[in-house]
Amino acid sequence: MSSLSLAGRTAAALILSTTLGSPLAAQETDGAQDWVGEIAPVSGFTGEMSMTMQTEVPEDMAVEEVIRFEPWQMLDEMFRDDLVFLMRSGPSDWTASDAANTAAQDCEAQRLLTEEGQDQMRQFGALLVVNELRPGQIMMSEWCRSQQTYIGMEEGMVDADMNALDGMTAKLEPALNPLAAENGAADVDALREIVMGWDGSDGDGPLMIITHFDNIEALTEFRVYEGEMLLVDPKRDGRVLGYLRLGSATPDAVHFPADIVAFAEAERARAAATD
Amino acid sequence: MPDRHIPMIRNTVLSAILGLPLLAAAPVQAQSVTGLVNQDGPGGRMSMEVIGTDVTLDGDVTEELTFAPWEMLGELARDDVVLLMRHGPTDWSKRDMANVAPTDCDNQRIMTEAGKRQMYELGALIVANDLRPGQIVVSQWCRNQQTLEALQAGMLDVDPTALDGIEVNTMAELNLLLSLQGAPDVAAMRDFIAAWDGGEGEGPLLIISHFTNIQELTERTVYEGELLLLDPDQDNRVLGELKLGSAAPDVGHFE
């Protein structure tokens, strides 16, 4: 086990037992920014990970987002290296759609991340590293929006710590391609094998998998927002322990029924009006 | 005899629309208690009135059952809809232990006495306004079982026959989502709702589950004791919500 993940666990345990809401020490690795993570409860059930920067940074490195997670009790388990973070690709441009027979990496014929979505993924990456949730291994669908999601996150991780990628492997995996697509994955058998076979490897952090709505729903029965990640526990028969997503995440109109999307929009408008 | 029960809610709707007196609409079984419904803003309020002397209600029912939108009143008359409810008000000073067993009441957050009273009044209001369910299923969690007990007590005090022929089952599939020994996902609950077709025609299906399960299925955040009305014929779409006047956001799930 690396000292890095050990530090993460200690910090989490400390927060749980005594110092709710106190700042986590930034990781003391060479190359790390002086950015400070903080994990605090939002309600009795929901937690929030945020970060503050000690010195001013260029706009393209700024982090305004926070990570929301549920349930708060998951904090006990969240820093385990033998978990799988099962993620859906980030916010995309829904005015486009995948061509029926698009090749896996034909970005011209696919729905892609919006610029804002890609920037949100950058912030997600920074927040993960600063809050000691750096993945040890990353696997992603070959589809362009999954790769864009990774590229965004990678940028944020390196912003937070220029050595963040040391020892981390990131690779494309055709078995993670979208279920419904002509050139996609036929089923989630291979995904299930990857998830259930993860045992923490070298102890450098959890496995992060970037895939698609349909694949995640087929495997877990959970419907996730763009950029949301489920924490899946292979040691508990693949049980979903909870989720992490950015504060800005919302249900999209294609995968969620119209009444749910309309309700979420109304809630956001109401929250904005009372802010 | 299929038309022995004349669902009062249909008469209530009619009365509300036509401005007729509601007392005439009271069914035989609950002749000493009557339901009242008033439009209020985008929704409405249901209350009840004791008009006989042979009612053994435990104190006055002062709660009102608010609902929205007003148009859902018509849908509430259907037997083939589902009332998806969150357990009643609990004591948040004591949380569920991380790996708590579903029936380990000593290590769970349980209902307050005030919460039990509210669920008792909700049960009374449900029967008085002829929203009696045709079937009830409930999570194993202690606060859900307590909710059921209080609801049943209120229902029976309004009408001792209110639960006759009503199937009541505990279903592990409704147990708390994202708790280590809870339900692993909401697929079973979703399928159970989708398969509901009105049963014997005695009323809607009532499901007593949890915030997290209801949020995962519907994306709605509900108060303790709140009910959503779902339509299996429309892909489990939410038609509206009902909750007591006293319902309030809890510290566990609301900022």
Walk me through this protein's architecture:
The complex is a heterodimer of chains A (275) and B (255). By secondary structure, chain A is an alpha/beta fold. Helix content of chain A is 30%, strand content 18%. Chain A contains six helices and nine strands; from the N terminus they run αββββαβαβαβαββα. A nine-stranded mixed beta sheet of chain A has the order 1-2-3-9-8-4-7-5-6. In chain A, β1 and β2 (47-53) form a beta hairpin. The termini of chain A are far apart. By secondary structure, chain B is of the alpha/beta class. Chain B has helices at residues 8-18, 72-75, 113-128, 142-158, 187-194, 211-218, and strands spanning 33-40, 43-50, 65-68, 82-86, 135-138, 167-170, 205-209, 227-231, 237-244. In chain B, strands 1-2-3-9-8-4-7-5-6 form a nine-stranded mixed beta sheet. Mean pLDDT of chain B is 89; it is low at 1-30. At the A-B interface, β9 and α6 of A face α6 of B.
Concise description?
The complex is a heterodimer of chains A (about 280) and B (about 260). Chain A is of the alpha/beta class and about 280 residues long.
Strands across the major sheet of chain A, in which order?
1-2-3-9-8-4-7-5-6
Helix content of chain A: 25-40%
For the largest sheet of chain B, list the strands in their spatial order: 1-2-3-9-8-4-7-5-6
Question: What is the number of strand segments of chain A?
Answer: 9
User: Measured on Cα atoms, how large is the radius of gyration of chain A?
Assistant: 18 Å
Q: Please trace the helix and strand order of chain B, writing H or E for each element.
A: HEEEHEHEHEHEHEE
Can you count the helices of chain B? 6
Could you estimate the helical fraction of the residues of chain B in percent? 25-40%
Strand content of chain A: 15-25%
What average pLDDT do the residues of chain A reach?
Answer: 88
